[in-house]
Amino acid sequence: MNKKMDARLPRDRVLEVAARLFAEQGIDAVSVRDITGAAGVNLGTINYHFGSKENLIHEVFETLLAPLQERRLALLDQIEAQAGDGPLDLELVLRAIVEPTIRSSIGQEGAVVYLPRLMFQVYAVARPFLGEKNSELNDRVAKRFIDAISRAAPGVPYEQVCWRYYMVVGGFLQLVSDALGSNRLHRLSDGCCDTGDPNRVIEELITFFMQGMTAPAGSLRQDAFNNPGREAFLEALASPF
After folding, report:
1. Which InterPro entries does this UniProt record tie to the protein (predicted)?
2. pLDDT in tens, 67-105
3. pLDDT by residue (tens digit) across 134-158?
């Protein structure tokens, strides 16, 4: 254990170590003993400060997620205040979604860098006790941003905005998780894509999301209908493997 961690209170050490282990190994794979051993505290520490592993998981997510969501909402409040009764700037709204996560994760230290990988686990595996808590923290913020995007892109149907908002969130979580984990994009691009550069990551994401968010609804599907090879392709897709 390093001196920096030694100087922290046992509760804080447990939270930071738990976030790291959950992100690296998976929430279900990490035991209380794993956490206390890595944090250098006794087994009773988790029960004393959190009561149970489930409560510790709640605390990890709330500790990491709440400040990030507050930052996003503060940025959105500023964008709305500047716009007054006029239209919102779509690029600024998307930046308010994306930039806080990128800036707090890539090239930084501390437990918050593990949040994207933890969020992927929430989406991938159903855990009722965690899903309910996660919804409390996220749904209010998500609906604020969906409404803001609708105001910034009035020509896009609300249903499409909802679909695309979810794709935005999934896209940047995937990229940040890759940058903090396997760096697969860096390998696939033969080193051309530097996922360790937060500024480049942000600009690539915003450029992509701006185009996707404002694309005409259904335009790609209409192109597919006009493709003579479409029926044969769909038949092949429907065939059992």
Report:
1. DNA-bd_HTH_TetR-type_CS, Homeodomain-like_sf, HTH-type_TetR-like_transc_reg, HTH_TetR, PsrA_TetR_C, Tet_transcr_reg_TetR-rel_C_sf
2. 999 999 999 999 999 999 999 999 999 999 999 988 888
3. 676 688 899 999 999 999 999 999 9
* Tens digit of each residue's pLDDT (9 = 90 or more) over 178-198: 877 778 888 899 989 888 888
Q: What CATH code is assigned to 1-51?
A: 1.10.10.60
In angstroms, what CA-CA distances link 177 with 52, 63, 76, 184? Answer: 28, 19, 24, 10
Tell me yes or no: is domain 59-238 CATH 1.10.357.10: yes
Whether residue 17 contacts residue 34, with contact meaning beta carbons closer than 8 Å, is answered with no
